[in-house]
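Typical record was shown:
=====
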Amino acid sequence: MKALRGVLLAAGLFAAAVSSGKQPDPPGQVRPGEKPVNAAYLFAHMTDDDYGRLYYSVSLDGLHWTRLNGGKRITDDYRGHPDIAQGPDGTYYIAGNQSDAAPDITIWSSRDLIQWERYSTYTPDLKSTPGYSQALQRIGAPKLFFDKASRQFVMTWHTPHLEGTPEDSERYWASQRTLYVTSRDLKTFSAPPERLLDWDMGTIDVFLRQEEGKYWAILKDETYPTLDWVTGKTIRIASSDSLLGPYKDLSLPISPNFREAPMLVPSPDGKAWYLYYEQYPGVSYGLSVASKLSGPWYQVSGYTFHDDWDKYALPPKVRHGTMITISRGQYDALVQKFGLDKPGRP
């Protein structure tokens, strides 16, 4: 009995130590004194109470983010779901639109990520898309990608072909298809728009990346989840040997259901990928991590409001946007211009 009490006491002490101990940090961070491959990050986003306008948050580790500019907009001109790409001469471009029903996509440019100027406007002829003449006049979340290999931009967005009904509002979302055009200078564009993905499923929030010797399409599966379609409303990834596809090997869900607006950045040491996604509408953000884009992926603990368990943190009420890597000099310039908010500020 005495021996048993000793075993139980030791087990209890071990359990207490485990429960009170600090949990492991996500991979990809650098040790003190080591120089990061990726020194800083910018999160260009909207907010829950000012949807469609431009705000900034920044980070030095890709995990902990702080708002800039005292909770004010970066510019009053921009409207849309922020997405930023850098061109071959170092100029940054951001795409947006006044609303999904607006016919135009507007592009702004900036040399320093501080001052944005209107650069061009593109009006796609949606119904001229081959095999998609039933397209509705809707342009959702335009996104930009510059392909270094072909020295051209690809602009993607989603367009549906069915209106919702009181009995079936989800058929509108399930009918979303991802379209694209290409451009050398973001002033003239290929015509007509083309479908990027040939799958018979809803897709939104699609963006492209070229990494690890392949092209990758990161997307939201926009079919409503059921027992017949358990992957609905999750973030998934497909790959291709060519910029414009065909994209294949569509992954299983990387996120739980009812997540959207994915964002992808490399870790500070360049050895891991951080994939963020929003639990909508404006509830929180999740984070999944992998060493390769092909996976496997796992979720990092956050939004528990326990320091030992929260391994990443974003300002409250941030919504859709994009994350990009920036230099430490760019980070310092943004902080000097706009100022860091106090942690936890709404």
Summary: The CA atoms of residues 2 and 8 lie 10 Å apart. The chain has three helices and 19 strands.
